[in-house]
C-alpha cells in the first residue's frame, strides 16, 4: 500500500513540479492554509506541489492510499486531471491533523472531507457526471470508515 502511495505521490509531484528544498512542519501548515483558501488556482497548485513533496519525503506523516480509501483514484470514469486534483486534496486533508497533533497516523476521514470540499469547487460543465460519480464514491468510502462524526464544514484546527 505504501508503494502505491509513493508511486501516486511521485506522479502527482511530477505533474505539479518538484521542489528541491526541505520545508518545516509549520511551513507546511501555512501552505495548507494557502491551499485551502483557493485549491483550484495557481496559488493552490503551487502550495499542493510543496505539500505533496513534503508528504512524500517526511517521516512525520503517513498517508495510506487504497481502493477502499480513494475509490475515485482507480475508477476508469474519473479523468486523470480530476484524480490528480483530488489526490492533492486527500493528502492535504490527511496530513493536516497529523501535523497539528504531532501524531503520525493516516487520517482517512480528514482526507475524504477535504476531497468532498474540493469536489464542490470544481466547475466544469462537461464533467458533471464525473463529479457526481466522485461524490458518490467518496461518500461511500466515508460511510465505510464511519466519518460521519466529522461534519463537512468543521475545521480540524480549532485555532482557526
What can you see in these coordinates?
By secondary structure, the protein is mostly helical. It is 59% helix and 0% strand. The chain contains 6 helices and no strands. The protein has helices at 2-16, 25-37, 42-57, 80-101, 108-119, 128-144. Helix 3 (42-57) packs across helix 4 (80-101). The protein is globular and about 40 Å long. It starts with a helix and ends in a 16-residue tail after the last helix.
Number of strands: 0
Distance between the termini: 33 Å
What is the count of helical runs?
6
Which series of helices and strands comes N to C?
A: HHHHHH
How would you sum up this structure in a few lines?
Helices cover 59% and strands 0% of the residues. The chain is an all-alpha fold and 160 residues long.
Features:
160 residues, disordered N terminus, disordered C terminus, mainly alpha, globular
Spell out the blueprint of helices and strands.
Blueprint: H1 2-16, H2 25-37, H3 42-57, H4 80-101, H5 108-119, H6 128-144
Helix pairs in contact: 1-3, 2-3, 2-4, 3-4, 4-5, 5-6
